[in-house]
Design a protein that fits this description.
The protein has about 160 residues and is α+β, with helices and mostly antiparallel strands. The protein has four helices and six strands, in the order H-H-E-E-E-E-H-E-E-H. Strands 1-2-3-4-6-5 form a six-stranded antiparallel beta sheet.
Length: about 160
């Protein structure tokens, strides 16, 4: 009986090892990733489309988000959201972005070179893109949180300027 238990344990361990090895050897393509991401977005009630650059565009509460796929690093996963800054000075935008980055998890806030656009991204590595479904909602939440911090800090900068 003990020999049978050992054999069964060895078979199970080999089975698990082979299953993980097989999944690690999958070669994903841009088209595979687009299909996986778009299908999950549809299941969540979003209406995704592919833009001219091959990025996936979808809207949440009126804001446009993009999933950017890097052909040179397919496990790299990025959700991007950007907005124009209007009359806000580049210096104020950079200060607010730095403030936001120090207080945000995972999300990065950047300002375009011309100082007119702020972007917030969440960047992760997904060895298996099917894990996308488990990080989508949290990623969107982190972007919204960073956006709130950024906009609040811009208001605070304006208030401090008026008090000076």
């Amino acid at each position: 009986m003990a020999k049978m238990g050992i054999k069964l344990t060895v078979i199970m361990v080999l089975g698990v090892f082979l299953a993980f090895s097989a999944s690690a050897q999958v070669e994903w393509t841009r088209a595979d990733l687009q299909g996986i991401y778009m299908e999950h977005l549809r299941q969540e009630g979003f209406l995704p489309s592919i833009d001219i650059d091959g990025d996936i565009l979808f809207k949440v509460s009126g804001n446009s988000y993009f999933i950017i796929i890097d052909d040179n690093d397919l496990p790299f996963f990025q959700i991007y959201m950007g907005f124009t800054l209007g009359e806000i000075s580049e210096e104020d935008a950079l200060n607010a972005a730095n403030f936001t980055n120090r207080r945000s998890k995972v999300a990065k806030t950047t300002i375009s070179q011309d100082g007119r656009v702020a972007s917030i991204t969440v960047e992760l590595l997904l060895n298996d893109p099917r894990g996308f479904s488990s990080v989508l909602n949290r990623s969107l939440s982190l972007i919204r949180h960073a956006e709130n911090i950024f906009k609040s800090q811009l208001k605070e900068i304006e208030v401090q300027r008026e008090l000076s």
